[in-house]
Structures are given as C-alpha cells and as structure tokens.
Amino acid sequence: MINGLSLLDRSRIRAGETGAAALRATVARATRAELLGYDRIWVAEHHGVPGIAGAAPAVLLAAVAGATSTVRIGSAGVMLPHHQPIVVAEQFATLSAFAPGRVDLGLGRSPGFTAPVRRALRQGENDFATDLAELRAYLDGTAEVTAHPRPDGPVPLHVLATGSGLRVAAEAGLPVIVGGPLLGVGGDPGPGMEALDAYRRAFRPTERQPEPRVAISLDVLIADTEAEAADLLLPEAWAMAWSRTHGVFPPLESVAAVRAAPRTSRQQGHLDRTVAAAITGTRAAVESRLAELLERTGAAELVAASSTFDRDALAASDASLAALFGKSGPVKPG
Predict the structure, then answer these.
(1) What integer is the mean pLDDT of 98-126?
(2) Which pLDDT does position 125 carry in this prediction?
(3) What angle do CA 254, 225, 289 make, to 5 degrees?
(4) What pLDDT, in 10s, does the model give residues 22-57?
(5) Domain residues of the chain, as ranges?
(6) pLDDT at 333 over 80
(7) What is the pTM of this model?
(8) Is 190 left (phi over 0), alpha (psi -120 to 50) or beta?
(9) Mean pLDDT in the chain?
C-alpha cells in the first residue's frame, strides 16, 4: 500500500534562463512541496548536460534543507561510479547534521551521458555492489577507516534499480526506486513485474529494512483538460527526443516552440515513447491510471519526476497531485 508521495526535481533549465535560476527554482519548488504535504523531495545528478543544472546533489540538498524544516530530502540519485564511497558518506553525514532525520541517500550507477563526460569523471571499472557495501560500512561506522562527521542517526539508503540493480538491492536488503520500461505504463509490462517479483523473493531482510520496498518514478502531470495536460509533457518529451538524436540534452522549450519545430520520424518515435511512459490528464483520469499502476506494482511510494516549461502550470500540477493523495500540509520528519 502506498505510504509516500514524492517529487523528483532535476533542476531543468528553461530556454533563455541560467543554471543558477534553475537551481533556485528547485529550492522554491521544494518549499511549496513541503507546504502541500509531500513526504519527500528528491534531486538528481547529471554532468555536462546543457539542459540540467543539477550536478551536485549534496550541495543542492543543503540549500533545500536550509529552506525547509519537515519534508524529507534525498538524492535520486548519486551515481556511485563517479565518486569514492568515503566521500559520499562524508557528504551525506554532513548533510544529515543540518537536517537530522530527514536525509535519504539514493544511489545509482549510470555512466556519464557521453564519452567526454565519462573521461572528465575519470570513470573506470567499478563494482557497484562492492562500492555500495563500502559506503554502507562508512555510514554504519564499521569500515576500516572511520568517516567523519558521524551521523546522528541512520542515513537510509535506496537503490535506483533496473534488472541487475534490483538483484544488488535485494541481496543488500535495500529499498528500490524503479521507473521506465519496468513499469509498463505505455502498454505491455514486459519483464517488469517479473523483475519486481524476483526482487521481493530474493530480498534479504535487515534490522533496519525488514521488508522489501518499491518506489516507482515517472512523469505525472495534471491539468484541467486532457489536452492541456498532454501539452505540459511536450517540452520534456521533445528534449528527450532531441537528446536521443543529437547526443545533447537541451533546455526545455515552450509548447509553442516544440509544436513549431520540424521533427524527423525517428524523433517523433522517441517523443511518442516518452508520452506513452507518462501519466497525464485531468485529476480523475490520473487518479484512475495511478490506482492501476500502484496496485500492479505494489509500490509503497510514488515519485513524480515531472517537469515542464511553464513553472506556474507545474506548480498547479504539483498541488493537484498532492490533493489527489489527500495531502493537506507539512508532514513530520522521520
């Protein structure tokens, strides 16, 4: 049964604005989400991406922590192959000192988007499971080297998981955040449910996490009409199509600019796939589709990874989603 509603904000840059403006907008969105009663705010890590300002989750979360007081804050996620585990442990223990009991550390293993970015990150051969165990030992105080500062309490770990990531999470007894093809939003679920069932069967309980836990992440956008909601998704869908065909993830363009832009059949195909993997519509339509998805996946948390060019429309969508889940104000940390 779902017991968490979260937002993932990637600090998407809009055409004509700076990365600094996008970061400030993330903090402002987090403060509004707290007032709406969201349980958690997630931020992400992207490097060398023109359309995304969110490159340093720990730093951005420090700003979010300073602007909020009750909502949980987390990374979705820190890409562990880009970092030394002890540095990640130190960063999030430090963050926890400023927001005790509110910090979550979500971890992924995606490589840099392009070869030059991977070289800039000095990315080599890493074993995600080994690095994950090392990081966990630093946070628990059981590693050969004691990482400082020591966190006042536990910093919960989450794994951004695909097929093999689900296996690692199950063996480590950690909750997962899944999205994309595994959810089967656009039609045939494919191997998604089998992968989630395998995660639950293989899960090794721990004292801190006695049961498997699944959070699902996808674009969810609500507007007064189906057409308006579909338009909200267009800027992100077009940016995704452009990145797949040009190797560069651009800033978000307005709906009018997207409609006017010429597109190839290949770009249209990518755009259609992004649209199919999202849930958009009126509040009633979104409620119905989410109910089916949450029941099918057995998810404990919905992570709305939504973005659009019009920030006022995004704020209205966030408010509608919170109301759909019966949120009415700030939640207590913990």
Answers:
(1) 79
(2) 67
(3) 105
(4) 999 999 999 999 999 999 999 999 988 899 999 999
(5) 4-324
(6) no
(7) 0.93
(8) left
(9) 92
Q: CA 26: distance to chain centroid?
A: 13
- Provide the pLDDT for residue 330: 64
Three-state DSSP at 110 gives coil
Q: What is the largest CA-CA distance in the chain?
A: 59
Measure the CA dihedral 51/184/232/44, to 10°: -30
* CA 289 to each of CA 24, 59, 315: distance values in angstroms, whole numbers, following the listed order: 32, 35, 21
Say if domain 4-324 classifies as CATH 1.25.40.10. no
Residue pair 185/276 in contact by the 8 Å Cβ criterion: yes
Q: How many CB atoms lie within 10 A of CB 215?
A: 25
Task: Give the C-alpha distances (Å, rounded to integers) separating 244 from 15, 191, 217, 252, 275.
Answer: 19, 24, 20, 15, 15
- Distance (Å, whole) CA 293 – CA 285: 13
Beta-carbon contacts of 253 under 8 Å, excluding residues fewer than 6 positions away, are: 15, 235, 238, 239, 261, 309
- How high is the pLDDT of residue 48? 86
3-state SS track over 236-287: HHHHHHHHHHHCCCCCECCHHHHHHCCCCHHHHHHHHHHHHCCEEECHHHHH
Instruction: Give the N- to C-terminal CA distance of the chain in Å, as an integer.
Output: 19
| Residues in CB range of 308: below 8 A, 6 or more apart | 221, 232, 233, 234, 235, 236, 252, 314, 317
Q: Is the pLDDT of residue 137 over 80?
A: yes
